[in-house]
Structure prediction request, 225 residues.
Amino acid sequence: DGGITQSPKYLFRKEGQNVTLSCEQNLNHDAMYWYRQDPGQGLRLIYYSQIVNDFQKGDIAEGYSVSREKKESFPLTVTSAQKNPTAFYLCASSPRDRGDTQYFGPGTRLTVL
Amino acid sequence: QKEVEQNSGPLSVPEGAIASLNCTYSDRGSQSFFWYRQYSGKSPELIMSIYSNGDKEDGRFTAQLNKASQYVSLLIRDSQPSDSATYLCAVRLSGGSYIPTFGRGTSLIVHP
Prediction:
């Protein structure tokens, strides 16, 4: 049963704390992505990775960090430098031969109190 | 200027009607076009992709692409209340990146 999993589904943190969101896929996809979605907004790209041990900044990378130590995993850390971290975070992946076709995980809703 | 534009809606249609969702894009060299459905509180789900001019049908869904006019549409025939969701248009723009750009989405409400 292939797919993308994200955990936790809901996350509450105090202001000033770093938090790490998990994303795992067993689709054997090469590329993985992190997006942020705010109410009434489209998806905004935070970071993406095309291969292990390599990643690139997206449109809104400030205040976030990522790692890609394994093909299956692409965790996102929301640091205290992110000014407005409360949002719905979506992880996605795409296959090698169709990089523009994105498949999404279920998402993590982060609320910073 | 927004690169991928959608009317935010909501678009309200009666059950059984055809729902027509539209998306325009600014880059004439755009190559790939996608429609995602997103239920409230859930993640986007890919429902259609289209790459060449014309129509592409999949069940009750038809995607229509007109590159000359720079728009892509999604038609939903025999709309059902379960089709009520936000529909996101995504376009792979020209210029190097293969990552698609998403519109803000159109909210569709199908009422009984």
